[in-house]
Each structure stands twice: as structure tokens, then as C-alpha cells.
Amino acid sequence: MMRHTTVLAVLLVAVLQTPAASAGTAPQTAAEPATTQAPKPPTPVPSTAANPAANPTNAQVYFIWPHEGAVIAGGKFWVRMGLRNMGVAPKGTAVANTGHHHLLVDTELPSMTEAIPNDRNHLHFGAGETEARIELPPGKHTLQLLLGDLDHVPHKPPVVSKKITITVR
Predict the structure, then answer these.
(1) Which of 4, 49, 62, 129 is exposed most, by the fewest CB atoms within 10 A?
(2) Do the beta carbons of residue 91 and residue 126 sit within 8 Å?
(3) pTM for the whole thing?
(4) In angstroms, what is the C-alpha Rg of the chain?
């Protein structure tokens, strides 16, 4: 499933970056010589702490699994992440309205104007993953998703899930 999702994300990025697809022009045939060159798509401005990537105001990131209050036997389990009204793209991919998942484990939201930390409490899925197998010790844990742009900076406004609590036994 994860391999298919990653392949679809890469294909989506390739299609979105194709000049004919982004310019809305029809492909030319041999009988129709080119009279003008198709316009190039605008070059996106990379995000920075002072200029985070914008996103649609109706974008939502959410957990497919686990659910709030889930009790998980054993420490290893799958986290499945969903996203609405935006696309998932690997880190470094400069395509409008895309980002990649970050899983916050037992921590509060980081700064919304700086790159999301990368440590045991801030897990990065920069290859565009939408699911991952993680391991947590027994006990109660909080999980929250935060979408990051091509440079791991939260979008403006931030795309963040509700915080959920799970129990690992």
C-alpha cells in the first residue's frame, strides 16, 4: 500500500510539473507545427522561516489509524495518515498546495515559523509516506500530525490534526 501511495505521489508531482499539464495546452501533432513555445509554469518561491508556504484554508490532515482512545497490544503498530484538499509530495518538491507528514509523539506543537525538529518526538516522512510502522513503549501516548512544506516548515495557516491519545500495552 505504501509503495503504491508513494508511486502515485511521484506521478502526481511529475504530471503537475509538466508544462502542457500546468498550462492547459493540448499536445501538438506532427501536422501542426509549433508556432509558439508553451509558457513555462511559474517557479515556486521556496519557503523560509519568514515566508512559509501558503495552503488552501480548507486543507485537513487527520489520522486514519489509530483512532482516539485506541488500545494497542504490543509496541509496534501502523500509523495511517490522511490529507484533504492538498497533495502529498516528498521533501524538496516545489509544487503548490503540497507537503509531507510529520508525526508528533508525546510533545506540543513546534514553532510555526521554523523548520519542524527531527528527533524521537518529531518523526519526518519526507519521502511522501502516508503510512508508517512505529514502535512505542507501554503506556499512554499522544499523537498529532503536522504537515510540512518542501523545507519542513509548517504551512501558513498550519495544517495540523487534532491531538489523539492512545494506550500501548
Answers:
(1) 4
(2) yes
(3) 0.70
(4) 19
DSSP string, the chain: -HHHHHHHHHHHHHHHHSHHHHHTPPPP-TTS--SSPPPPPPPPPPP-SSSPPB--TT-EEEEEESPTT-EESSSEEEEEEEEESSEE--TT---TTEEEEEEEESS----SSSPPP-BTTEEE-TT--SEEEEE--SEEEEEEEEEE-TTSPBPBS--BPPPEEEEE-
Q: For residue range 29-86, list pLDDT tens digits in order.
A: 444 444 445 444 444 445 454 556 677 789 999 999 999 999 999 989 999 999 999 9
- For residue 38, give every residue at least 6 positions away whose Cβ sits within 8 Å of its Cβ, in sequence order, or none: 19, 20, 23, 25
Cell of 31: 501536422
